[in-house]
């Protein structure tokens, strides 16, 4: 079995939990989605991949253009989820899309609800930019890290959105990690 490594990144939106296996990032979790690290995981703040991710996040949070394209990722999910996460990676910095547009992008326009589920199960927040998905007419929709975090990320990227000013997101059950 391959070792699983983890580290934390202290960001303006809270501590982000980074998890890596086989030299690729498998998770970047917001505080609201984290669980206590498995005792079998290895804390490694100096892993080259984690240093790379931290450097990219530093650039992103300082307002520099950062697309995270050089970070090796390995999110775990179904083929459908993978297709949605790949589509999310194509949303450029400062741009948005909707669940319906994502469904059309994968040639499955009736799969809007399934797309929403796949977006919501994104294991690599920020880098796979699910925060750039808005509802109809640019309305702010749910986010695993909480709507305050989504607002912060959208504002950082100077993205306009319609905000009803209410936190609709229910606390998710903690993610289940492999191994």
Total helices: the number is 5
Shape: globular
- Please report the distance between the alpha carbons of the first and last residues: 9 Å
Query: Which value, in Å, is the CA radius of gyration?
Result: 16 Å
Low-confidence regions:
none
Alpha-beta content class: alpha/beta
Secondary-structure element series: EEEEHHEHHEH
What is the mean predicted local confidence, pLDDT?
Answer: 91
Strand order of the largest sheet: 3-2-1-4
Strand tally is 6
Helix content: 25-40%
How can the largest sheet be summarized? Answer: 4 strands, mixed
**Strand coverage percent:** 15-25%
Report what the structure shows:
The chain contains five helices and six strands, in the order ββββααβααβα. The chain has 179 residues and is an alpha/beta fold. The protein is globular. The termini are close together.
Write the layout of secondary structure elements.
Elements: E1 4-11, E2 14-21, E3 24-29, E4 42-43, H1 48-61, H2 79-89, E5 97-98, H3 99-105, H4 112-120, E6 133-134, H5 147-156
Parallel strand pairs: 1-4, 5-6
Antiparallel strand pairs: 1-2, 2-3
Helix pairs in contact: 2-4, 3-4
Précis, in short:
With 179 residues, the chain is α/β, with parallel strands linked by helices.
Key attributes of the depicted protein:
about 180 residues; two-stranded parallel ribbon; four-stranded mixed sheet; about 15% strand; 5 helices; alpha/beta
């Amino acid at each position: 079995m391959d070792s699983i490594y983890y580290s934390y990144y202290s960001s303006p939106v809270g501590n982000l939990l980074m998890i890596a296996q086989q030299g690729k990032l498998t998770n970047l979790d917001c505080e609201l989605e984290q669980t206590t690290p498995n005792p079998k995981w290895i804390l490694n703040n100096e892993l080259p991949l984690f240093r790379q991710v931290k450097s990219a996040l530093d650039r992103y949070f300082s307002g520099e253009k950062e697309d995270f394209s050089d970070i090796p990722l390995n999110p775990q999910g179904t083929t459908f989820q993978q297709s949605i996460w790949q589509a999310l990676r194509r949303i450029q910095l400062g741009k948005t899309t909707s669940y319906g547009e994502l469904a059309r992008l994968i040639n499955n326009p009736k799969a809007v609800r399934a797309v929403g589920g796949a977006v919501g199960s994104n294991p690599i927040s920020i880098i796979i930019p699910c925060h750039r998905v808005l509802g109809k007419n640019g309305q702010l929709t749910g986010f695993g890290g909480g709507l305050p975090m989504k607002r912060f990320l959208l504002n950082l990227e100077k993205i306009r959105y319609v905000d009803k000013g209410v936190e609709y997101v229910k606390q998710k059950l903690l993610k289940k990690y492999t191994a």
